[in-house]
Model the fold of this input.
Amino acid sequence: MARIVVTGASGFLGHHVLEAFGKVGGHEILPLSRREYDLTREDAVGSMFADLRPDYVVHLAGLSGGIQSNRIRPADYFHENILLLTHMFHHAARNGVRRLLVPMGGCSYPATAPSPIREEEMWNGYPQGESAGYSVAKKMSLVLSEVYRKQDGLESVVVIPGNLYGEHDNYSLADSHVIPAMIRKIHAAKTRGERKLAFWGTGAPRRDFVYVGDVAALIPYFLFDYRGDGPVNLSSGTSISIRDLAGKIASIFGYGGEIEWDASYPDGQMVKIFSVERLRNLGKSCPTPIDEGLRKTVAWYEENYPGGIRL
Done:
């Protein structure tokens, strides 16, 4: 029976990864949160490996948030994430871990990468400036994977999820992403009987969203069975405009008010879709349609926040 440490297990993706391993069975899963070990401290990382002696590690722990939070705290996002990655790779190599799996965000791709974005584009430019502190730090997982494999023989896998959404997401307006922010605002507008609701930008940008349960279900395969070279995009490979996304969420809630778009705020990159050719060549996919995934997500929000969250 393999011992598998899952860091960041209490986080958004972590909840779903634990469920995925539960369905696979046959392994001892050791979920970690910051309460047990502060993995930004090297001594704590060393203690974790000495105490738990994992065979495999799924390293999900990280500081993440929306664009506004990244703009305000870019150094924090870089500092914490680079520490987490550096300590984890170093001690995984020193402790004979059989394989380390690390996800990194699609925001690490160059801002100018053409869509659909192929994995080969990763080093062809600088990420979008608003989240560059976070994005560049996470991008270093590719370098760490390469150098520790060359020097110490550490087997590691880097996967690149698209724009995740689903149950257990973060609904804080200060650092949430677009789908949870929309869910919270539309639910609040309906609850208050407001007939107008405003979102930033024009609503024209198109994005590739992927249901978190689909990504989590792929983690055991990439941890145990994947033997390819280089990272793999884990996404739907489909696109939807931000305007249409808002309309779908409003429809699920039964919100009939007017949604306005404030074009004084920037749209950012107009099209960002991820190539899933490499994933499909492995016989894998993220199949949940956006309508089904949104219904699951809204149902979870209504069950867990029946009165909404105070804005």
